[in-house]
Amino acid sequence: MNRNLSMILRLTALVASILFPVSLALAEELPEVIPTSIDKGRSIAFNRNAGNCLSCHFVVDAELPGNLGPPLIQMQARFPDRAVLRAQIWNAASQNPDTIMPPYGKHNILTESEVDLVVDYIYSL
To answer: Pick from 73, 74, 113, 68: which is nearest to 92 by CA?
Structure first.
C-alpha cells in the first residue's frame, strides 16, 4: 500500500476514535425535540379524522391533496389579518353561507387550541 495512503488511513482512524465518543456524549446531552405549534397544527390539518384539510385543499408538501377548496399557499398575503383566517376556520359560513367548509370551531369538530394550532400551521404556508 502506498505510504501516504497508509498514513491518511491511520490519521482518519485516529480522528474518528477521538471524535466518535465526543459526538455520542454530546448527543446524550441534547434535549428531546419538542414539536412546535406549526408541527402540531400540521399534524391536525393532515389528520383525516381531525382537521382533514387535505380532503379539499392543496398543500405543497401533502400526499393526495384535494382541489375543491382554494390551495393553501401564500396564506399571509391572502389573510394579512390572522384573526380573519381563524374566523374562516372557526366558521366559514359566517363569511359565505353557501360554503361547504365545515365549521370546525362552531360545531366543536376541533377544540379552541386545535383551531389555534391549525391556524399557526396554515398561516406559515
So the answer is: 68
Read off the pTM. Answer: 0.71
DSSP states of 103-119 as a string? -TTTTTSS-HHHHHHHH
| Residues near 114 by beta carbon (within 8 Å), at least 6 away in sequence | 44, 50, 51
Per-residue pLDDT tens for 19-78? Answer: 556 555 555 665 666 779 899 999 999 998 888 998 999 998 888 888 889 999 999 999
37-46 vs 112-123: helix crossing angle, rounded to 10: 100
Q: Which residues contact 16 (CB under 8 A, 6 or more apart)?
A: none
Cβ-in-10-Å burial (0-12, 13-18, 19+) of 45 comes to buried
